[in-house]
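Hey team,

Filing this mostly as a record. A colleague (T.K.) asked me to run one chain through the structure pipeline before their review meeting, and I want the input and output archived in the tracker in case anyone asks later how it was produced. No errors, nothing strange. Just documentation.

Input sequence:
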Amino acid sequence: MAPAAAGYFRRLTRRLTEDLDQLDAEEMAETADASGACRASDCARGDEVEMLGRLRSVDSCAKSSGASMEAEFFDGTDAVTLVWIGRRRIPGIEPGKVLRIRGRVGDRAGQKVIYNPAYELQGDTQA
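Output structure:
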């Protein structure tokens, strides 16, 4: 068997047998690296960052003091909570959507958070 064919079958077998979440994480990390975006695992509180990743979940929080919308953003290396204050819904912000975000990393209960990030939807990719 030619080396190229062996490599193809090795990659195909890997994609058929590995955990889908792990494959998705690796693909997101590679895409972020290629785009020049910062990795979530490398950023710290106070850093101004630009990241590329996928929304895992989106929640609307209608609290008595004011509405907010939260989303879990994952770039293949770590999760960051995105919070839009004063919003209950944002068109296009849905689970599975790929976003490029910009903002300052904060800390909330030991978790990375970005409040009111600037964002761009990247294509129509779904998980």
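Quick notes for T.K.: Residues 20-35 form the longest helix (16 residues). The helical segments are 3-17, 20-35.
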